[in-house]
# Entry
Amino acid sequence: MTLTTEERQALIDLANEARKRAYVPYSKYRVGAALRTKSGRIFTGVNVENAAYPTTMCAERVAVFKAVSEGEREFEVIAVVTDNGGSPCGGCRQVLAEFGLDTLVLIADGRGKLVKEMTVAELLPEAFTPNHLK
Ligand code: THU
# Structure
């Protein structure tokens, strides 16, 4: 997959913009995600917290679930933005792995600066995938 610097930045900017809509009354830690499918559609996501803390949902998973529920299962790249360039949690890595180990993950900070980029395979080595159930 060839992704230009401009395309990377555009996705990061969308995730950063989405971040403003994060519902984070407890952690105050805003996370925004923007997921681009192979068909070119973009789905954003934010973390949505809950007074019953474990029912909180991460931004990355919101973006993936929005895409899947709209019929999209083939992903190209996801941008994840936090204040400090935080990395996707284990649960989100697993959910991304379900739909492809080659999905590119762009991790950026609150100024919109790309701090790290890697594939899901690199983020989650030895992933348990649908192939294991065949
Ligand atoms: N969070 C995400 O949205 N994505 C991650 O990958 C890590 C954590 C959220 C969950 C919670 O609302 C806040 O960040 C602090 O854990």
